[in-house]
Design brief:
Blueprint lengths: L1 E2 L6 E6 L10 E6 L8 E9 L2 H6 L3 H6 L11 E9 L11 E5 L8 E4 L11 E2 L6 H4 L3 H14 L6 E5 L4 H12 L3 E6 L4 H7 L2 E4 L4 H8 L6 E4 L4 H8 L7 E3 L8 E2 L9 H10 L7 E6 L3 H9 L6 E5 L1
Parallel strand pairs: 9-10, 9-12, 10-11, 12-13, 13-14, 15-16
Antiparallel strand pairs: 1-5, 2-3, 4-5, 4-7, 4-16, 5-6, 6-8
Helix pairs in contact: 4-5
Bound molecules: NADP nicotinamide-adenine-dinucleotide phosphate (NAP).
Length: about 325
Protein backbone atom coordinates (compact mmCIF):
# COMPACT_ATOMS: atom_id res chain seq x y z
CA UNK A 1 0.00 0.00 0.00
CA UNK A 2 1.25 3.51 -0.88
CA UNK A 3 0.38 6.31 1.44
CA UNK A 4 0.97 9.99 1.81
CA UNK A 5 2.17 12.04 4.75
CA UNK A 6 1.42 11.53 8.39
CA UNK A 7 -1.35 8.96 8.83
CA UNK A 8 -3.98 9.85 11.44
CA UNK A 9 -5.35 6.94 13.44
CA UNK A 10 -8.89 8.35 13.64
CA UNK A 11 -11.23 10.46 11.58
CA UNK A 12 -14.65 12.04 11.94
CA UNK A 13 -17.72 10.54 10.29
CA UNK A 14 -21.40 11.37 10.34
CA UNK A 15 -23.11 8.21 11.59
CA UNK A 16 -26.66 7.18 12.41
CA UNK A 17 -27.62 4.70 15.13
CA UNK A 18 -31.22 4.75 13.98
CA UNK A 19 -32.94 5.85 10.80
CA UNK A 20 -34.91 9.10 10.91
CA UNK A 21 -34.70 12.85 10.28
CA UNK A 22 -31.76 15.24 10.74
CA UNK A 23 -31.92 14.72 14.52
CA UNK A 24 -30.43 11.22 14.18
CA UNK A 25 -27.27 12.50 12.48
CA UNK A 26 -24.24 12.51 14.79
CA UNK A 27 -20.57 13.32 14.27
CA UNK A 28 -18.22 10.72 15.74
CA UNK A 29 -14.51 10.09 15.92
CA UNK A 30 -13.83 6.56 14.62
CA UNK A 31 -10.73 4.56 13.65
CA UNK A 32 -9.51 5.73 10.24
CA UNK A 33 -10.36 3.07 7.63
CA UNK A 34 -7.38 1.53 5.82
CA UNK A 35 -7.30 0.94 2.06
CA UNK A 36 -7.34 -2.78 1.28
CA UNK A 37 -6.37 -4.39 -2.03
CA UNK A 38 -8.11 -2.63 -4.91
CA UNK A 39 -9.15 0.33 -2.77
CA UNK A 40 -8.34 4.02 -2.52
CA UNK A 41 -8.63 6.00 0.63
CA UNK A 42 -9.74 9.57 0.06
CA UNK A 43 -9.24 12.34 2.57
CA UNK A 44 -12.57 14.08 1.98
CA UNK A 45 -12.54 17.88 1.95
CA UNK A 46 -16.12 18.58 0.86
CA UNK A 47 -19.38 16.67 0.48
CA UNK A 48 -22.42 17.81 -1.49
CA UNK A 49 -25.92 17.00 -0.24
CA UNK A 50 -28.78 15.64 -2.32
CA UNK A 51 -32.38 14.73 -1.46
CA UNK A 52 -31.48 11.02 -1.73
CA UNK A 53 -29.18 11.40 1.31
CA UNK A 54 -32.00 12.08 3.72
CA UNK A 55 -34.61 10.09 1.78
CA UNK A 56 -32.61 6.84 1.98
CA UNK A 57 -31.86 7.23 5.70
CA UNK A 58 -35.32 8.44 6.75
CA UNK A 59 -36.72 5.00 7.60
CA UNK A 60 -35.56 1.40 7.87
CA UNK A 61 -37.49 0.11 4.84
CA UNK A 62 -36.05 2.69 2.46
CA UNK A 63 -32.58 2.22 3.93
CA UNK A 64 -32.83 -1.53 3.36
CA UNK A 65 -33.71 -0.96 -0.29
CA UNK A 66 -30.38 0.85 -0.65
CA UNK A 67 -28.54 -1.89 1.25
CA UNK A 68 -27.89 0.29 4.32
CA UNK A 69 -27.65 -1.11 7.83
CA UNK A 70 -26.93 0.47 11.22
CA UNK A 71 -24.74 2.19 12.14
CA UNK A 72 -25.08 3.88 8.75
CA UNK A 73 -23.08 6.67 7.19
CA UNK A 74 -24.51 9.70 5.44
CA UNK A 75 -24.08 11.57 2.16
CA UNK A 76 -22.86 10.38 -1.22
CA UNK A 77 -21.19 13.11 -3.30
CA UNK A 78 -17.63 13.89 -2.22
CA UNK A 79 -14.38 15.52 -3.28
CA UNK A 80 -10.95 15.28 -1.73
CA UNK A 81 -7.43 13.95 -2.08
CA UNK A 82 -6.24 10.34 -2.38
CA UNK A 83 -4.06 9.54 0.64
CA UNK A 84 -3.73 5.74 0.44
CA UNK A 85 -3.72 3.44 -2.56
CA UNK A 86 -4.20 -0.29 -2.02
CA UNK A 87 -2.39 -3.04 -3.91
CA UNK A 88 -3.63 -3.58 -7.42
CA UNK A 89 -5.09 -0.10 -7.97
CA UNK A 90 -4.00 1.59 -11.18
CA UNK A 91 -4.55 5.13 -12.37
CA UNK A 92 -4.48 6.80 -8.95
CA UNK A 93 -1.65 7.91 -6.70
CA UNK A 94 -1.47 9.56 -3.28
CA UNK A 95 -1.99 13.29 -3.70
CA UNK A 96 -4.41 12.99 -6.65
CA UNK A 97 -7.45 15.24 -6.36
CA UNK A 98 -10.60 13.17 -6.90
CA UNK A 99 -14.38 13.46 -6.75
CA UNK A 100 -17.34 11.15 -7.20
CA UNK A 101 -19.88 9.09 -5.29
CA UNK A 102 -19.56 7.00 -2.12
CA UNK A 103 -23.05 5.74 -1.33
CA UNK A 104 -24.22 7.02 2.06
CA UNK A 105 -20.75 7.35 3.56
CA UNK A 106 -19.33 10.56 2.04
CA UNK A 107 -19.69 12.92 5.00
CA UNK A 108 -16.57 11.69 6.75
CA UNK A 109 -12.91 12.60 6.91
CA UNK A 110 -12.02 9.39 5.04
CA UNK A 111 -13.87 7.25 2.51
CA UNK A 112 -12.76 4.01 0.90
CA UNK A 113 -13.48 3.64 -2.80
CA UNK A 114 -13.19 0.57 -5.02
CA UNK A 115 -12.61 2.32 -8.34
CA UNK A 116 -12.66 -0.91 -10.37
CA UNK A 117 -16.33 -1.42 -9.49
CA UNK A 118 -17.11 1.37 -11.93
CA UNK A 119 -20.48 2.17 -10.38
CA UNK A 120 -21.79 5.59 -9.42
CA UNK A 121 -22.11 4.60 -5.74
CA UNK A 122 -18.41 3.75 -5.47
CA UNK A 123 -16.31 5.83 -7.81
CA UNK A 124 -13.43 8.26 -8.11
CA UNK A 125 -12.63 10.61 -10.98
CA UNK A 126 -9.69 12.95 -11.26
CA UNK A 127 -10.77 16.50 -10.43
CA UNK A 128 -9.78 18.75 -13.32
CA UNK A 129 -7.59 21.77 -12.64
CA UNK A 130 -9.83 24.79 -12.38
CA UNK A 131 -12.54 22.94 -10.43
CA UNK A 132 -12.31 23.52 -6.69
CA UNK A 133 -13.24 20.75 -4.26
CA UNK A 134 -16.46 22.34 -3.07
CA UNK A 135 -17.70 22.52 -6.64
CA UNK A 136 -16.43 19.04 -7.50
CA UNK A 137 -18.40 17.69 -4.53
CA UNK A 138 -21.68 18.84 -6.11
CA UNK A 139 -21.31 17.23 -9.50
CA UNK A 140 -21.91 13.48 -9.39
CA UNK A 141 -25.59 12.96 -8.63
CA UNK A 142 -27.14 16.21 -9.81
CA UNK A 143 -24.91 16.57 -12.86
CA UNK A 144 -25.48 13.02 -14.06
CA UNK A 145 -29.22 13.24 -13.40
CA UNK A 146 -29.56 16.47 -15.36
CA UNK A 147 -27.60 14.91 -18.18
CA UNK A 148 -29.77 11.76 -18.20
CA UNK A 149 -33.00 13.76 -18.15
CA UNK A 150 -31.86 15.96 -21.01
CA UNK A 151 -30.69 12.95 -23.01
CA UNK A 152 -34.23 11.56 -22.80
CA UNK A 153 -35.66 14.61 -24.59
CA UNK A 154 -32.54 15.69 -26.51
CA UNK A 155 -33.07 19.47 -26.66
CA UNK A 156 -31.41 21.49 -29.42
CA UNK A 157 -31.49 24.96 -30.97
CA UNK A 158 -35.01 24.47 -32.38
CA UNK A 159 -36.46 23.64 -28.98
CA UNK A 160 -38.23 25.54 -26.26
CA UNK A 161 -37.72 23.38 -23.18
CA UNK A 162 -39.84 23.66 -20.04
CA UNK A 163 -37.97 22.62 -16.88
CA UNK A 164 -40.02 22.09 -13.73
CA UNK A 165 -38.11 22.74 -10.49
CA UNK A 166 -35.34 24.51 -12.39
CA UNK A 167 -33.73 26.26 -9.40
CA UNK A 168 -32.84 23.11 -7.44
CA UNK A 169 -29.71 21.01 -7.35
CA UNK A 170 -30.50 19.14 -10.57
CA UNK A 171 -32.13 22.16 -12.17
CA UNK A 172 -29.03 24.36 -12.09
CA UNK A 173 -27.21 21.77 -14.23
CA UNK A 174 -30.20 21.07 -16.49
CA UNK A 175 -30.83 24.72 -17.30
CA UNK A 176 -27.22 25.42 -18.20
CA UNK A 177 -26.70 22.19 -20.16
CA UNK A 178 -29.87 22.83 -22.16
CA UNK A 179 -28.68 26.36 -22.91
CA UNK A 180 -25.31 24.99 -24.02
CA UNK A 181 -27.25 22.64 -26.34
CA UNK A 182 -28.84 25.75 -27.82
CA UNK A 183 -32.39 25.41 -26.47
CA UNK A 184 -34.57 28.20 -25.19
CA UNK A 185 -35.33 27.34 -21.54
CA UNK A 186 -38.34 28.23 -19.45
CA UNK A 187 -37.86 27.20 -15.82
CA UNK A 188 -40.40 26.91 -13.03
CA UNK A 189 -39.72 28.17 -9.53
CA UNK A 190 -41.33 30.24 -6.83
CA UNK A 191 -41.36 34.00 -7.26
CA UNK A 192 -38.20 34.16 -5.14
CA UNK A 193 -36.32 32.08 -7.74
CA UNK A 194 -36.94 34.42 -10.68
CA UNK A 195 -33.67 36.37 -10.64
CA UNK A 196 -31.69 33.25 -9.84
CA UNK A 197 -33.21 31.44 -12.84
CA UNK A 198 -32.59 34.40 -15.14
CA UNK A 199 -28.92 34.44 -14.10
CA UNK A 200 -28.66 30.76 -15.06
CA UNK A 201 -30.09 31.45 -18.50
CA UNK A 202 -33.73 30.42 -18.03
CA UNK A 203 -36.88 32.47 -18.39
CA UNK A 204 -38.64 32.11 -15.03
CA UNK A 205 -42.26 31.14 -14.58
CA UNK A 206 -43.95 30.45 -11.26
CA UNK A 207 -45.16 26.93 -10.56
CA UNK A 208 -48.69 26.19 -9.31
CA UNK A 209 -52.21 26.45 -10.73
CA UNK A 210 -52.33 28.02 -14.18
CA UNK A 211 -48.77 27.02 -15.11
CA UNK A 212 -49.70 26.06 -18.68
CA UNK A 213 -51.35 29.46 -19.25
CA UNK A 214 -48.32 31.33 -17.94
CA UNK A 215 -45.99 29.30 -20.13
CA UNK A 216 -48.25 29.87 -23.16
CA UNK A 217 -48.07 33.62 -22.55
CA UNK A 218 -44.26 33.45 -22.44
CA UNK A 219 -43.93 31.17 -25.44
CA UNK A 220 -46.90 31.67 -27.78
CA UNK A 221 -45.01 29.68 -30.42
CA UNK A 222 -45.19 26.62 -28.19
CA UNK A 223 -43.07 24.39 -26.00
CA UNK A 224 -41.44 21.41 -27.67
CA UNK A 225 -39.98 19.41 -24.74
CA UNK A 226 -40.21 19.25 -20.95
CA UNK A 227 -38.43 17.73 -17.98
CA UNK A 228 -40.07 17.63 -14.57
CA UNK A 229 -37.47 17.74 -11.80
CA UNK A 230 -39.94 18.11 -8.96
CA UNK A 231 -43.11 16.01 -9.33
CA UNK A 232 -45.85 15.79 -11.94
CA UNK A 233 -47.12 19.36 -12.42
CA UNK A 234 -44.73 20.12 -15.26
CA UNK A 235 -45.69 16.87 -16.98
CA UNK A 236 -49.36 17.87 -16.83
CA UNK A 237 -48.62 21.40 -18.05
CA UNK A 238 -46.47 20.08 -20.90
CA UNK A 239 -49.22 17.72 -22.01
CA UNK A 240 -51.72 20.59 -21.85
CA UNK A 241 -49.36 22.56 -24.08
CA UNK A 242 -49.27 19.77 -26.64
CA UNK A 243 -45.79 18.39 -25.94
CA UNK A 244 -45.74 14.73 -27.05
CA UNK A 245 -45.04 12.16 -24.31
CA UNK A 246 -41.81 11.05 -25.95
CA UNK A 247 -40.38 14.52 -25.34
CA UNK A 248 -41.33 14.64 -21.65
CA UNK A 249 -39.19 13.18 -18.88
CA UNK A 250 -39.44 12.95 -15.09
CA UNK A 251 -36.81 12.29 -12.42
CA UNK A 252 -38.64 12.53 -9.10
CA UNK A 253 -41.59 10.27 -9.75
CA UNK A 254 -43.03 8.05 -12.45
CA UNK A 255 -45.81 9.00 -14.83
CA UNK A 256 -47.30 6.43 -17.20
CA UNK A 257 -46.32 7.13 -20.79
CA UNK A 258 -43.28 9.35 -20.16
CA UNK A 259 -39.71 8.28 -19.51
CA UNK A 260 -38.18 8.44 -16.04
CA UNK A 261 -34.49 9.30 -16.02
CA UNK A 262 -32.05 8.02 -13.45
CA UNK A 263 -28.70 9.67 -12.85
CA UNK A 264 -27.04 6.28 -12.42
CA UNK A 265 -27.92 5.56 -16.07
CA UNK A 266 -26.39 8.71 -17.52
CA UNK A 267 -24.25 8.19 -20.60
CA UNK A 268 -20.69 7.04 -19.92
CA UNK A 269 -18.50 10.11 -19.70
CA UNK A 270 -21.38 12.47 -18.87
CA UNK A 271 -19.93 13.37 -15.48
CA UNK A 272 -16.43 13.96 -16.82
CA UNK A 273 -17.91 16.18 -19.54
CA UNK A 274 -19.71 18.25 -16.90
CA UNK A 275 -16.49 18.61 -14.92
CA UNK A 276 -14.72 19.75 -18.09
CA UNK A 277 -17.42 22.36 -18.73
CA UNK A 278 -16.98 23.65 -15.18
CA UNK A 279 -13.20 23.77 -15.61
CA UNK A 280 -13.65 25.68 -18.87
CA UNK A 281 -15.88 28.23 -17.14
CA UNK A 282 -18.88 27.30 -19.30
CA UNK A 283 -20.95 25.86 -16.45
CA UNK A 284 -21.09 27.07 -12.86
CA UNK A 285 -22.53 25.54 -9.73
CA UNK A 286 -24.34 27.97 -7.44
CA UNK A 287 -23.79 26.93 -3.83
CA UNK A 288 -26.76 28.02 -1.74
CA UNK A 289 -25.03 27.38 1.58
CA UNK A 290 -21.91 25.84 3.09
CA UNK A 291 -21.77 24.28 6.54
CA UNK A 292 -18.94 22.90 8.66
CA UNK A 293 -19.50 19.20 9.27
CA UNK A 294 -20.40 19.90 12.90
CA UNK A 295 -23.59 21.53 11.54
CA UNK A 296 -24.70 18.55 9.49
CA UNK A 297 -28.17 18.60 11.04
CA UNK A 298 -28.76 22.25 10.03
CA UNK A 299 -27.42 21.56 6.54
CA UNK A 300 -29.70 18.56 6.10
CA UNK A 301 -32.70 20.45 7.40
CA UNK A 302 -32.06 23.20 4.87
CA UNK A 303 -31.65 20.69 2.01
CA UNK A 304 -34.77 18.78 3.03
CA UNK A 305 -36.82 21.99 3.04
CA UNK A 306 -37.05 21.62 -0.77
CA UNK A 307 -36.43 25.30 -1.53
CA UNK A 308 -32.68 25.41 -1.95
CA UNK A 309 -31.39 27.32 -4.96
CA UNK A 310 -28.46 25.27 -6.20
CA UNK A 311 -26.44 23.02 -3.91
CA UNK A 312 -25.66 22.61 -0.19
CA UNK A 313 -22.05 21.74 0.63
CA UNK A 314 -20.44 20.35 3.79
CA UNK A 315 -16.86 21.33 4.59
CA UNK A 316 -14.65 18.71 6.26
N1 LIG B 1 -33.88 10.01 -10.64
C1 LIG B 1 -32.72 10.39 -10.15
O1 LIG B 1 -31.66 9.80 -10.48
C2 LIG B 1 -32.68 11.55 -9.22
C3 LIG B 1 -31.44 12.13 -8.94
C4 LIG B 1 -31.41 13.29 -8.17
C5 LIG B 1 -32.60 13.79 -7.65
N2 LIG B 1 -33.77 13.15 -7.87
C6 LIG B 1 -35.02 13.68 -7.33
O2 LIG B 1 -35.32 14.84 -8.08
C7 LIG B 1 -35.89 15.86 -7.26
C8 LIG B 1 -35.07 17.13 -7.40
O3 LIG B 1 -33.76 16.94 -6.91
P1 LIG B 1 -32.88 18.22 -6.55
O4 LIG B 1 -31.57 17.77 -6.09
O5 LIG B 1 -32.97 19.22 -7.66
O6 LIG B 1 -33.75 18.78 -5.32
P2 LIG B 1 -33.67 20.17 -4.56
O7 LIG B 1 -32.36 20.81 -4.80
O8 LIG B 1 -34.09 19.92 -3.17
O9 LIG B 1 -34.80 21.04 -5.28
C9 LIG B 1 -35.14 22.24 -4.68
C10 LIG B 1 -35.91 23.08 -5.69
O10 LIG B 1 -37.23 22.56 -5.85
C11 LIG B 1 -38.05 23.69 -6.18
N3 LIG B 1 -39.45 23.43 -5.85
C12 LIG B 1 -40.00 23.34 -4.61
N4 LIG B 1 -41.33 23.12 -4.75
C13 LIG B 1 -41.59 23.08 -6.09
C14 LIG B 1 -42.77 22.91 -6.86
N5 LIG B 1 -43.97 22.71 -6.29
N6 LIG B 1 -42.66 22.91 -8.22
C15 LIG B 1 -41.47 23.10 -8.83
N7 LIG B 1 -40.32 23.29 -8.14
C16 LIG B 1 -40.39 23.28 -6.79
C17 LIG B 1 -37.51 24.80 -5.34
O11 LIG B 1 -37.78 26.04 -5.99
P3 LIG B 1 -38.32 27.29 -5.11
O12 LIG B 1 -37.29 27.49 -4.02
O13 LIG B 1 -38.35 28.41 -6.07
O14 LIG B 1 -39.64 26.87 -4.54
C18 LIG B 1 -36.01 24.51 -5.23
O15 LIG B 1 -35.25 25.31 -6.07
C19 LIG B 1 -35.92 15.26 -5.85
O16 LIG B 1 -37.19 14.71 -5.64
C20 LIG B 1 -34.88 14.17 -5.89
O17 LIG B 1 -35.16 13.15 -4.97
C21 LIG B 1 -33.84 12.05 -8.67
Amino acid sequence: MWQQGEQPSTGRAVLLDSFGGPEVLGLREIPAPQAGPGQLRVRVTAAGLNPMDWIMTADADTAARFGLSLPAGFGTDYAGVVDQVGDGVTGFAPGDRVFGGALSRAVADFVLIDPAEGIAANEAHHTPDGVDDRTAATLAIAGRTASAALAAVDPGPDDTLLIGGAAGGVGVFAVQLARIAGARVIGTGSATSADFLRDLGAEPVTYGDGLADRVRALAPGGVTAAIDLHGVDTVHAARELGVPDDRICTIATQVDGVSAANGANAAPGALEEIARLVAAGRLRVPVAARFPVEQIRDATELQAGRHVHGKVVIDL
